[in-house]
């Protein structure tokens, strides 16, 4: 059934795993959906955008909330109608869709008022004609302002806000862009909505090993397996963003099934992707970041793809005993970041196979799959300020490729803070 | 058919066409769906509302490429009569066509320098 899924705090992987079920069809636009699935807690800042998303789903529609450990009432403020489900998500969603289509379950009314922000009616008897078409405000909406083009012409600069639920971007990322044709001429990134008080202090039991490693010893084998899986999950998402969704699904299946020491499938995947010229053309030379710009940001694979041997694991005695050395690439473009993550996935599986019962010593910071994670913030928070400078002047397609290759997780920082907070409360 | 005669057939077709048009019109009215609410109509770009109209005057860059293509298309047209007389005229025709293509090629190089072939 067609589902538009919104991944709230800490639910990215569970939502991604829904793709593995043959009955689930995660669609990219609410127009194609019947069910709006909201997982976890959504910060209040995104409530209005979520309501707009809900209202743009055609009838019959239904909202389903999958709490996944989020406290009840974390999100329900503006949603008078919804169904909460705990488990057996695909089965329950199928049943709900059947009820909707057979008329047993009424379609949900809109949340936002049916009021046009820019009402307009022409002079003719059918509302046609008048100054609206040619007077600079077609159908009551102002047209984009003019800006200089590279040919010396003055053409429209279209303001466009993308996100927070744009399916190719991490949940919560909002870009205020200005487009001249296909080119981004101005980009601003809004504040991370997850770093607010409205989602902090959630019940974060059962979070991943990297968050636990901030405060307690965790086995190296578990950490490295989780790292390899996280990289493969990124590859799965990035392939879907390249419109190679079927291959992405296979990689996702691999990510959930791979075991320590079993690096051969990942190596062959890296070979196949290396041969794939369609991927090479869309990533080579795209989104190049100089090493100097990433110095001290703890940007993990992104920094290492630009040639910075920046890895907390290199300072850990347990990793040094295993002969760990950071892998680095030189180019620093999106293609290098693809290669970097695949190489690191292979390396992590090998490390996990040899790690035995070694454990980390909690130091308050950890090298997560996305970079240096500490309670004060994750790598996404440090990479966000780079984005406007990186994307300006790019074509829209390249901008999406670049953003996907950065693997931002806006929610990770608040999760790390929540983990530290939870520990402090517990002790 | 024979009973009706040619005028009768034309009349029958005329009446049938009018009835069909009315039928289509009435069935459209019967099936009419309620108008979409404003949030249902607004374009989706991730959950935020658009602020300006989507009518957007942007640079159709392919038109310069189209002009360059046209120039080479005409060159091919010149080549047909040239190919007919080429054997008779020999080397001199070869040199003339070489000059013609070189001049066109200089034009392409100029267009390249002016970033005509950049799509965006």
What layout of secondary structure does this protein have?
The complex is a heterodimer of chains A (427) and B (120).
Chain A: E1 2-7, H1 12-17, E2 25-26, E3 35-39, H2 47-55, E4 62-66, E5 83-84, H3 89-102, E6 145-148, E7 154-162, E8 175-180, E9 183-189, H4 209-213, H5 220-241, H6 245-257, H7 264-275, H8 277-283, H9 291-294, H10 301-305, H11 317-321, H12 334-354, E10 366-368, E11 371-373, H13 379-383, H14 387-391, H15 396-406, H16 412-426
Parallel strand pairs in A: 1-2, 1-3, 3-4, 4-5
Antiparallel strand pairs in A: 6-7, 7-8, 8-9, 10-11
Chain B: H1 5-30, H2 38-41, H3 62-89, H4 91-113
Molecular structure report:
Chain A contains 16 helices and eleven strands. Chain A folds into two domains: 2-102, Rossmann fold, CATH 3.40.50.12280; 198-426, Cytochrome-c3 Hydrogenase, chain B. In chain A, the strands form three sheets. Chain A has a five-stranded parallel beta sheet. Chain A has a four-stranded antiparallel beta sheet with strand order 6-7-8-9. A two-stranded antiparallel ribbon of chain A has the order 10-11. Chain A is an alpha/beta fold. The radius of gyration of chain A is 23 Å and the shape is globular. Chain B has helices at 5-30, 38-41, 62-89, 91-113. Chain B has a single domain, classed as Methane Monooxygenase Hydroxylase, Chain G, domain 1 (Up-down Bundle), CATH 1.20.58. Chain B contains four helices and no strands. Chain A binds chain B through residues 29-31, 46, 49-50, 52-53, 55-56, 58, 110, 112, 114-117, 137-139, 141-144, 149-151, 153, 155-156, 158-166, 169, 174, 180-183, 395, and chain B through 37-40, 42, 44-59, 61, 115, 119-120.
């Amino acid at each position: 059934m067609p589902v538009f899924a919104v991944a709230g705090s800490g639910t990215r992987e569970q939502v991604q795993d829904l793709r593995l079920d043959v009955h689930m069809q995660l669609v990219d636009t609410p127009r194609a959906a019947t069910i709006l699935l909201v997982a976890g807690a959504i910060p209040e800042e995104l409530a209005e955008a979520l309501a707009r998303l809900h209202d743009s789903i055609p009838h019959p529609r239904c909202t389903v909330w999958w709490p996944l450990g989020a406290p009840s009432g974390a999100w329900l403020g503006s949603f008078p109608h919804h169904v909460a489900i705990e488990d057996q998500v695909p089965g329950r969603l199928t049943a709900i869709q059947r009820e909707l289509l057979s008329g047993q379950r009424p379609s949900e009314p809109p949340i936002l008022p049916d009021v046009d922000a820019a009402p307009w009616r022409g002079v003719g008897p059918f509302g046609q004609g008048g100054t609206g078409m040619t007077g600079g405000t077609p159908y009551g909406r102002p047209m984009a302002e003019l800006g200089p083009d590279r040919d010396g012409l003055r053409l429209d600069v279209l303001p466009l806000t993308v996100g927070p639920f744009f399916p190719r971007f991490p949940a919560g990322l909002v870009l205020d862009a200005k487009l001249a044709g296909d080119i981004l001429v101005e980009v601003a990134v809004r504040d991370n909505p997850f770093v607010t008080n409205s989602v902090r202090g959630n019940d974060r039991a059962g979070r991943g090993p990297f968050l636990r490693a901030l405060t307690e010893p965790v086995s190296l084998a578990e950490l490295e397996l989780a790292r390899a899986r996280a990289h493969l999950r990124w590859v799965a998402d990035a392939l879907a963003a390249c419109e190679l969704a079927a291959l992405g699904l296979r990689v996702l299946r691999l990510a959930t099934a791979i075991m320590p020491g079993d690096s051969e499938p990942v190596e062959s995947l890296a070979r196949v992707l290396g041969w794939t010229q369609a991927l090479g053309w869309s990533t080579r030379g795209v989104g190049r970041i100089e090493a100097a710009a990433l110095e001290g940001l703890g940007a993990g694979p992104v920094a290492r793809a630009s040639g910075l041997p920046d890895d907390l694991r290199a300072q850990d005695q347990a990793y040094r005993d295993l002969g760990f050395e950071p892998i680095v690439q030189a180019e620093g473009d999106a293609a290098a970041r693809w290669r970097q993550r695949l190489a690191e996935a292979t390396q992590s599986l090998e490390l996990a196979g040899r790690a035995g019962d070694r454990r980390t010593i909690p130091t308050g910071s950890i090298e997560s799959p996305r970079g240096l994670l500490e309670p004060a913030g994750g790598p996404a928070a440090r990479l966000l300020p780079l984005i406007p400078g990186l994307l300006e002047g790019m074509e829209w397609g390249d901008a999406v490729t670049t953003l996907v290759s950065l693997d931002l997780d806006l929610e990770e920082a608040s999760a790390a803070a929540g983990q530290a907070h939870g520990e402090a409360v517990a002790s | 058919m024979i009973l009706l005669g040619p005028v009768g057939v034309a009349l029958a077709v005329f009446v049938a066409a009018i009835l069909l048009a009315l039928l289509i019109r009435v069935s459209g009215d019967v099936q009419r769906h309620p108008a979409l609410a404003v949030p249902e109509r607004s374009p989706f770009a991730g959950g935020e509302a658009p602020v300006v109209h989507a009518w957007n005057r942007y640079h159709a860059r392919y038109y310069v490429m189209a002009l360059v293509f046209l120039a080479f298309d005409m060159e091919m047209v010149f080549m047909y009569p040239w190919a007919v007389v080429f054997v008779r005229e020999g080397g001199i025709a070869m040199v003339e066509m070489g000059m013609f293509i070189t001049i066109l090629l200089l034009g392409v190089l100029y267009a390249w320098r002016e970033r005509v072939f950049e799509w965006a």
